[in-house]
Amino acid sequence: xxxxxxxxxxxxxxxxxxxxxxxxxxxxxxxxxxxxxxxxxxxxxxxxxxxxxxxxxxxxxxxxxxxxxxxxxxxxxxxxxxxxxxxxxxxxxxxxxxxxxxxxxxxxxxxxxxxxxxxxxxxxxxxxxxxxxxxxxxxxxxxxxxxxxxxxxxxxxxxxxxxxxxxxxxxxxxx
Length: 175
Prior knowledge:
By secondary structure, the protein is of the alpha+beta class. It has helices at residues 49-64, 112-127, 140-148, 159-164, and strands spanning 2-5, 23-32, 35-45, 68-74, 77-84, 95-103, 131-136, 152-153, 169-174. Strand 2 (23-32) and strand 3 (35-45) form a beta hairpin. It starts with a strand and ends with a strand.
């Protein structure tokens, strides 16, 4: 696997030609009366071509505004990526936002996500962040990944993320 930091011009719809977002979800974490519980919630999470175009626009913007996008490539084909935004936030401006981390369906469970997460933490630390902030999918498998790489519930919730994705779990991880 080759890991490369991407330029805005390298991020285009063709980059995702061999990337498969699909995730079959059966159970999700939900906070009920202040207590985290696993609840059945079955659906398939996948991206349409319109979703991929929006992703391309967002990732290009991340790079253009001073953030980082790193891709994981297997034989020249994108199989995972991570992005971190450049704008600090939080009561002590301690956070940088890990805005995306995805591994292609057929490549999950091989450590690619962990390597990408480590690269995101290193980049954020180099920029002066104390923590990464992650608004993460509430699927049991997704939350297991983030727990395994050292994340925990965020001490401060970032309102724009909560409003955009109210069922996401708000996490943080020291860099």
